[in-house]
Design goal:
24 strands; single chain; seven-stranded mixed β-sheet; five-stranded parallel β-sheet; 21% strand; alpha/beta; 607 residues; 25% helix
Length: 607
């Protein structure tokens, strides 16, 4: 197989143009090319009058064609190389006998990105050893894939999720959006599927992926009902409605492989032994961030809100970035964590047609291109970076709080992306020194200070919105001129339970810190130079966006375990190691692999 990258064709190319282009690029006759598959299709819209499609193709040569000789003849073409092997291989392969009745896969029935055989699993007498099964806390993208991989390897995980099943959770979320009724345990942040369920369902990431783990994630999504196009389009997405049924199917697979998933199970304590904490290891430690230099303790179990104790020696901590009470508990127990940078800002809404025309010109509305997105960044004079975050074409701004008396915004799109407005976070980067709570100007920042900072601005947004989880909003023109908005005009805000027009930058009651307001007022007009119409006066700003990523990191070592608690595997967004569905899912896979290797005594590969 040979891979061709950067093969460019016009947007409106005929059906047979792709095959003809492959033959010309490889200098083959039609008989020498057995076939090809599209690995990736993206677009280049830098020249709006001539948008082109760019393809990455895997080409199968006919019998008798000397691939090595062909590559030598094309060695000057940097875009023709052997196709990489993107199949996923389980770390447990070759260690034990396959389960009774398991059938080996054949190449014909192997989904793209999956191994051509079932993974070997643990011996049937594994459960007889009396060792507790691996535990996964949280069932968002990270926990979902950690549990799925553990189940596929025969490790029969137990999953504890504080929220409800995805369909019940959807009803609870709509109760906030439609009636202003918040369930603190079942909302946009908590419940089956995690925060990614109520988002644009973006399935791309900028993480380094030398093992092609994102391909494994996409293949599992397709198996669960996602459209096959996510395997090859440049910026795949699913949307909320499709994610709901997919999550349910993946849950069913975990259960069919011996896994157990328990909902409404909030972890309120951890049981540790050894090290500085003594035999029990549960002494309160309010002043410590959990020293990485102290003797390492080990996981022995967790305690649920019901009082039940669950034994566990290997725990994947797949918390979302909003599990604030759990962060506080882990800090009290001395689990090492540290503050990290994150961003805060506002949501901005434009008519989707404005963005389409600015990005695609005369090709706006083309079915292959769909609704246009954008990615923007500006470095302000005050040293702050302002950038677009979680851009949702043809979507809505949604209420994303998980705590009473606070307003948080996020963005969401359905698969069709056919809502009237485009929206994105316009956020400003902040560092731990910006949010420290002790009033000092130097020294370590407390790892929980970022949470206190978020809560302050979320409570301010609730106040500015007038209560009832309404959000404060302002027309862009008024924001730039420094005057209060009293109504909205051609762009109507999509956030529910509603938006109260106000002044987001009013003295002493601003929706954001002064440096963030100043940076946004400089950046928004600057973005007009990249997207015509971006600074339109009627665009709507809605506050506040505070949960762009976790405000802390539960630091781990190269073995995937906490620096000072053995058997604890921090992973995903809440632990500070991911940002979005794909990166969280990949981190979940790697956490499951680390658990399996530890449980089975598999030596780690050299770095």
């Amino acid at each position: 197989m040979l891979r061709i990258t950067e093969l460019r064709l016009p947007l409106e190319h005929p059906e047979d143009a792709l095959r003809l282009a492959v033959l010309a690029r490889l200098r083959l006759t039609p008989e020498q090319l057995l076939g090809f598959t599209v690995f990736k299709r993206a677009y280049d819209a830098r020249k709006k009058s001539a948008v082109v499609l760019t393809y990455t193709l895997d080409c199968e040569l006919a019998a008798g064609v000397d691939e090595a000789a062909l590559l030598r003849s094309l060695e000057g073409d940097a875009h023709v190389r052997p196709s990489p092997d993107t199949r996923y291989r389980f770390v447990t392969e070759g260690l034990a006998h396959a389960p009774a009745g398991a059938q080996a896969r054949t190449p014909a029935d192997t989904p793209a990105g999956m191994p051509a055989r079932l993974p070997d699993r643990l011996p049937a007498d594994w459960r007889a050893t009396g060792r507790p099964r691996p535990l996964v806390i949280g069932f968002g993208p990270c926990g979902l894939f950690a549990a799925l991989l553990l189940a596929q390897m025969g490790l029969e995980p137990l999953v504890l999720e504080r929220g409800r099943r995805v369909r019940e959770r959807t009803q609870d979320t709509w109760a906030l959006w439609r009636r202003g009724v918040l369930d603190p345990e079942s909302n946009v942040q908590f419940g089956e599927g995690g925060a990614g369920t109520f988002s644009d369902g973006k399935l791309w990431s900028q993480i380094s992926d030398p093992r092609h783990l994102t391909r494994k994630v996409l293949a599992e999504f397709v198996k669960a009902g996602a459209p096959e196009e996510i395997l090859y389009v440049g910026k795949p997405h699913i949307g909320t409605f499709r994610l709901v049924s997919m999550v349910e199917k993946m849950r069913a697979e975990i259960q069919s492989l011996g896994g157990e998933i328990r909902f409404g199970q909030r972890v309120v304590d951890v049981q540790l032994e050894g090290g500085a904490g003594g035999a029990g290891g549960n002494e309160d430690n309010e002043d410590s961030a959990g020293s990485a230099g102290t003797a390492k303790r080990r996981m022995r179990g967790v305690v649920l809100a019901s009082g039940e104790q669950v034994d566990a020696e290997h725990v994947v901590l797949a918390l979302g970035h909003s599990a604030r009470d759990t962060f506080e508990m882990l800090h009290r127990r001395g689990v090492f964590m540290e503050p990290k940078p994150f961003s805060i800002g506002l949501r901005i809404e434009h008519p989707q047609g404005v963005i389409d025309r600015a990005r695609f010109g005369p090709s706006a509305g083309h079915p292959i291109l769909g609704a246009a997105d954008y990615r923007l960044v500006h470095h302000a004079r005050n040293g702050r970076a302002v950038y677009s975050f979680c851009m949702c074409p043809g979507g809505t701004v949604v209420a994303a709080t998980s705590e009473p008396g606070r307003v948080v915004t996020n963005g969401m799109s359905q698969y069709s992306r056919n809502e009237r407005n485009a929206n994105a976070g316009m956020v400003v980067g902040i560092a731990p020194q910006d949010y420290r709570q002790d009033g000092r100007h130097e020294g370590p920042v407390h790892p929980l200070d970022g949470i206190a900072f978020q809560r302050f601005w979320e409570a301010r947004a609730f106040e500015l919105g007038g209560g009832g989880y309404r959000a404060p909003g302002q027309r862009l023109g008024d924001f730039l001129r420094g005057q209060r908005s009293t109504t909205f005009d051609t762009v109507q805000p999509s956030y529910q339970p509603g938006v109260l027009p106000t002044d987001l930058a009013q003295p002493d009651r601003a929706a954001l810190p002064d440096y963030a307001i100043a940076a946004l007022r400089e950046a928004l007009p600057a973005f007009e130079r990249q997207i015509t119409g971006f600074a339109m006066p009627d665009a709507v700003l809605t506050g506040v966006e505070t949960r762009t990523s976790s405000p802390l990191r539960i630091t781990r070592g190269r073995d995937g375990q906490s620096l000072n608690v053995g058997g604890l595997y921090p992973a995903g967004e809440g632990a500070g190691y991911a940002g979005g569905i794909m990166s969280a899912a990949v981190d979940g896979i790697e956490a499951a692999e680390a658990v399996a290797m530890q449980m089975l005594g598999i030596p780690a590969s050299p770095a």
